[in-house]
Amino acid sequence: MLETDQNRRAFREAGIFFVDTVRRVPPDALDGPGLGVWSVRELIGHTCRALLTVENKADGGDGTPDRVVGPAEYFCEVLRDGSIHDAIAERGTYAAAALGDDPSSAVAGIVDRVGCFVDARPDDHPVGTPAGEMRLADYLPTRTFELVVHTLDLAAVVGRVIRVPESALSVALELSTEIAVRLGRADNLLMALAGRVPLRSNLLALGPE
Question: Which among 99, 107, 177 is positioned nearest to 188, based on CA atoms?
């Protein structure tokens, strides 16, 4: 993975990318179709969880050394639970309701607050996750991945073309490759990027928490 400072910068820039995209969403589009079972508002709510879980899980786990995992291991471990997607959909709905009448301002406030929260904590600050305890520095790339992917989902839904910050995109792409390797799907990813074969649908069906 990239160096710690780059991971922190990528997380900050992914948050700004999310804020800028939400600001471009027309108010009358919020209750229209978003992603899967979600409305646009619910997609925004779900994406906010990529930030909120940093706060909510920052008390750490049980401190057992063999439960510490890295970013790619985190996704692979969480995805072992086949029922997780129903829970994710439900949490997205609750998160949307918490945004209130002004989702744009709510998102900006969350990004600012969580950014300050992260800046005030060291790289080895423990974060408790469903996959085990992680260092904050290792957890941030998973949040950047979620922010980038779902902000691009949001931009596509509302018909906006927005450039992704390079550092955030690099972290998301690098983590995607690591996950594909661990899931045994990297050959299709590589050959698709080389223009040899179509990219298999749902190659990385991710979206935990």
Answer: 177
Looking at residue 35, its amino acid is L
Tens of pLDDT, residue by residue over 125-157, are: 999 888 888 999 999 999 999 999 999 999 999
pTM of the predicted protein model: 0.88
The two counts, helices (H) then strands (E), for the chain are: 8, 2
The C-alpha atoms of residue 20 and residue 168 are separated, in whole angstroms, by: 14
With 0-12 CB in 10 A as exposed, 13-18 as middle and 19+ as buried, what is 88? middle
Please state the length of the chain.
209
Q: 124 Cβ partners below 8 Å, 6+ apart?
A: 135, 136, 137
- What gap in Å lies between CA 8 and CA 12, rounded to an integer? 6
